[in-house]
Every structure is written in structure tokens, then in C-alpha cells.
Amino acid sequence: SGDARIMEGVLGDEELSLFRPSAKPAAPLRCIIYCEFDPHLGPRVAFQSPPGYVTADVCDALADHLLSSPDLCGRLISVAAFGLRFVGHPELLLDPRYERNQLIFNTCLVFEAGTEASTYTPLVSSLAANLRHLETEHLFLTSQATRPLTQQVLDGMRHDISVHGELRMPPHGCDFLPQGSQLTSFSAKLKDSLLPAVPETIQQHEVPVLLTPTSTVESLTNSVPTLPRLLPLLDRALTIKDIAQRAQLEVEEVISAVRQLMLHGVIRTIDQIAVNNVYVPAWRITDLLRNTQLMSQFCAYCRPE
């Protein structure tokens, strides 16, 4: 099927969408996955943050593509399939300590397919170099004592990239990483281009509007603790003040949550008066009848339930 079609290659300019501004920030990060070649099980996805964002079926289908031949190790790769784009930097370590005398792993940033991800490429390379150093010097990824902490490292990296627009070492909540490691953060220069634009002030009369499916937003509960109480009220009609009253929260708590969701690129706000506006389609609306790809983009943007 079309959803299962896999496209691999180096990163390039993305095709512009009629439903996204051409001068947009980079695509919001949806997930980070760590995959490796297991000498007994073959290629597999071992950790992901948030857990379960990429389904098991998709992980199984893409494992071979994310852990391709050793010839591609040390290079940036991009794989697009199942409505997602995976950007990674496979690493190959040769050492007699490993079974088959080698370890192949890849840590990929995951975005929605068709979105701009090229801004992240230097960050992906830096992320791979840091994990390579942790494994080379401390066997962090393969030691039974430290391997389970990989999940926490991915969580911390996702937090720092999504909230601060940069890769920090050690990542958020990961002070347990070996002291004195030659780990490098990257890079405050990317911050402005990585983070979606967020207004300086958010007013209580504004109406929050989701831009992505509810299932995507639910995965952000760790970053936005009040999300379970807010999500049922994000119906494109209630103002921030109304939501605060119904959720029994302070207005500032709701504004803070909306700001965090904006940083993740899953929500925006509109003025209450715009909810009652009447919109007339332009003449190009007829293109929807002839262009199936355009129709798919339109439906995804409107987020039908």
C-alpha cells in the first residue's frame, strides 16, 4: 500500500505543501528511537521515547532499513515510510568484546513524513558521536548495569530538543552519566530554527486548536502533566479561561501547558472571534478533486475524528 512504501536516501529539500508556510520552522520532533543489530534476533528497535510511539509492526518492517549495511555506517540516512520520516546516523564499532566482533546501532529522530527535517542533521551527527563515545569508553549501551538507562537518556534528549531546541550533555535528568566524559552539547545556534514560533503572551480569551491527532498529543503527558485534564476540553470552541474553569486549574497553569504544546508544534491559538468567522474557499479548491495527495494532506491538516 501507499503507506508502506519506503523511500531511502540522503536528506534534501522537501516538497512545499499548500497547507504549511514556506518559511516555517523545522518539523517538530515526534520521537527518538534506538535500534541495534542483535546477534541472535537480528536488527530491532530496542528503545524509543516516548515508548510505543512507533508501533511494533512498523519497527519490524523498518529495522533492516534503519540498520543497513556497514558501508552506510558513519553517514546520515533518511527513511520515509508509514507516514513518518526517520533521520539517523548508523554507527559501527569493531571490537572483540562484542559477539561477531562488532556492534551496529542507530539512533533516529522521528518526524511526520513530508515535513522539513534538514535543520536537525548536524544535531543527529552530534547525538551519534556522543552515544558512540559513551559505548566506546564505558560500554554504556551494552553493559547490563547501564543499558536500561538508555531509555532515560532518550527521554532526556527528547525533552531538551523539544523544549530548548538543542542537544544537551548530560541530557535532562541524566546526571548519572559517567563524569569526565568528553560529551558535547549541540548547539544553541539551532535553537531559533528548531523551535516553533510561540507568541510572547497568550491571552485567556484565545481558543487552543489542535494541529495533530489526539493520539500524538497524548504521548506528551510527561512534558505536560496537566494534559489528561485538558485534552478532552480542547474542542476548538472553549477559550483558555473556559478550559481553566472546567478543568479546575488556574488560568496561568493552562497558559503554561498551551505554551509547552506550542513548543512541540501540536497546537496553536486563535482569537475567540475567529471561531465564528465564515470562510469562502478560493478557486483552487477544485484541485482537491483531482489530486489525491493534496486531499490526503488536507484531511490530515483538518484532523478528522
Question: Secondary structure elements and their pairing?
Answer:
Blueprint: E1 7-9, E2 31-38, E3 42-49, H1 56-66, E4 77-81, E5 84-88, E6 91-94, E7 102-112, H2 121-138, H3 150-164, H4 191-194, E8 206-210, H5 214-218, H6 227-230, H7 240-247, H8 251-263, E9 267-271, H9 287-290, H10 292-302
Antiparallel strand pairs: 1-4, 2-3, 2-7, 4-5, 5-7, 6-7, 8-9
Q: What level of helicity do the residues show? A: 25-40%
User: What is the β-strand count?
Assistant: 9
Whole-number tally of structural domains:
2
The unreliable regions are 1-24
Structural class, by secondary structure, is alpha+beta
State Rg. 21 Å
Shape: globular
Strand content: 15-25%
Major sheet summary line: 7 strands, antiparallel
Total helical elements: 10
Task: Classify the oligomer.
Answer: single chain
Family: Belongs to the NPR2 family.
Pfam families: NPR2
InterPro entries: NPR2-like
GO biological process, one term: positive regulation of autophagy
The gist of it:
The chain has helices at residues 56-66, 121-138, 150-164, 191-194, 214-218, 227-230, 240-247, 251-263, 287-290, 292-302, and strands spanning 7-9, 31-38, 42-49, 77-81, 84-88, 91-94, 102-112, 206-210, 267-271. With 305 residues, the protein is of the alpha+beta class. Helix 7 packs across helix 8.
Walkthrough of the structure:
The chain is of the alpha+beta class and 305 residues long. It is built from 10 helices and 9 strands. The strands form 2 sheets. Strands 1, 2, 3, 4, 5, 6 and 7 form a 7-stranded antiparallel beta sheet that branches. Strands 8-9 form a two-stranded antiparallel ribbon. The chain is globular, with a radius of gyration of 21 Å.
